[in-house]
Structure to design on (344 residues):
């Protein structure tokens, strides 16, 4: 009796399962740039693609945000409710993943299509991106715990959620992709503040017009401090297909803060959850100065400190200032300070 054949069959089956769990067709963003952290197969034709993962700080602690896509390459629709994700770290501590309220309206993935989903989870303060593991699960009543593990994605040591200055971040807005790139960073200063202006270019690489959401912008410093930026012209901004728009983002940062390794962070508020979700982060280049190398004579800066509005500008090299007391209802402070620039 030949006893080797069953063992060979078992070995072949194990190899087949390993390939199914860890390989899938590659996914790419518009323009041919890779936009996938990892993939896990659902079947020979369908798969999960983890497009990005971010860590951000909220009022309630540290938050992990996962952006993934399900591709259905089969002939029948897939039910989203049949699948779930589990987030854990390398010490096997689990973090409860939740889906965005808007994603709960998505129920099926039609044959030959993709559906984007976003999950978030609170993690402990010591967690880093490379500590995380994402498991992809299918509910299965035939299993003891009613779940079948399809596979997992371990965040690579080389992964970063910050887009290099020389590249474009992809902002997924509805079903359209918008490329966000940094044109330049100009920063002057006075005795108290750096006065940065970030020139951000947005390109609609989709096939339909897209309205830019009410994004929130901030500069993140090397010490992970966040300083909000104002953006003129963002409200109801629509970009036509293959068109570009440029935004100028301005703010103030205390001069005591180092200008090394600044990053532009883009977030979006989710009112139902009272959370600002991470959208993208771009590395900023070394700042250049406006002509003259200092605050322009006609540039007016406003700083809100408590209930006092202080206007500071230079007139022929002489600094002048005006103060006005007012009620809190007259302004909407961000993190205790609102800063804007005006031209006079």
């Amino acid at each position: 009796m030949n006893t080797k054949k069953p063992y060979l069959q078992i070995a072949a089956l194990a190899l087949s399962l390993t390939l199914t769990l860890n390989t899938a067709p590659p996914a790419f963003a518009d323009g041919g740039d890779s936009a996938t952290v990892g993939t896990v197969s659902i079947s020979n034709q369908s798969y999960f693609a983890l497009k990005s993962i971010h860590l951000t700080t909220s009022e309630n602690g540290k938050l992990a945000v996962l952006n993934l896509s399900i591709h259905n390459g089969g002939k029948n629709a897939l039910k989203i409710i049949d699948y779930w994700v589990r987030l854990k770290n390398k010490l096997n501590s689990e973090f409860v993943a939740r889906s965005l309220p808007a994603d709960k309206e998505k129920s099926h993935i039609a044959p030959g299509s993709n559906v984007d989903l976003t999950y978030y989870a609170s993690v402990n303060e010591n967690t880093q991106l490379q500590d995380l593991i994402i498991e992809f699960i299918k509910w299965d009543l035939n299993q003891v715990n009613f779940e079948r593990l399809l596979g997992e994605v371990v965040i690579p040591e080389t992964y970063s959620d910050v887009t290099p200055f020389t590249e474009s971040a992809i902002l997924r807005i509805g079903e359209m992709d918008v490329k966000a790139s940094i044109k330049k960073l100009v920063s002057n200063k006075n005795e108290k503040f750096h006065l940065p202006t970030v020139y951000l270019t947005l390109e609609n690489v989709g096939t339909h017009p897209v309205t830019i959401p009410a994004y929130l912008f901030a500069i993140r410093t090397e010490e992970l401090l966040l300083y909000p930026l104002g953006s003129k012209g963002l409200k109801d901004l629509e970009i036509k297909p293959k068109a570009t728009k440029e935004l100028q983002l301005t703010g103030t940062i205390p001069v005591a803060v180092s200008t090394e390794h600044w990053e532009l962070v883009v977030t979006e508020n989710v009112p139902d959850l009272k959370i600002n979700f991470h959208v993208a982060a771009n590395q900023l280049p070394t700042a250049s100065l406006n002509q003259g190398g200092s605050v322009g004579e006609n540039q007016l800066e406003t700083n809100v400190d408590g209930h006092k509005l202080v206007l500071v500008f230079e007139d022929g090299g002489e600094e002048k200032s005006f103060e006005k007391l007012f009620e809190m209802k007259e302004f909407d402070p961000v993190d205790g300070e609102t800063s804007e620039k005006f031209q006079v």
